[in-house]
Write the structure tokens for this entry.
Amino acid sequence: LHLAAGGIGFIALAASFVVLGRWFARRGDSSMATGSRVGAAIVVLTFVAGAATATSAIGIALLWVAVMVGWVWLAVASVALYRTIPHPDAARRTAVA
């Protein structure tokens, strides 16, 4: 059951990377778009390979790779989005200063 629920979660995570990659591509940020797509592929491939060999040490290592790539890409994408999207209070801050 744990691997089945994980499968749903990792597929959803990879799908969100693809959607985010399209958004970055529309904005002209090809490096983030490529990174999103590569991250999605790595997450799916390492999860599937890890789940197939989950009873061995290499299977556990592959599952950890999927987890780490997921978390790292979420952090990188979050920072990129934080720098791209204007802060809601930006206009108010410049008016006060």
The mean pLDDT is 90. The helical segments are 2-26, 30-52, 57-84, 90-96. Residues 57-84 form the longest helix (28 residues). The chain is about 85% helix and 0% strand.
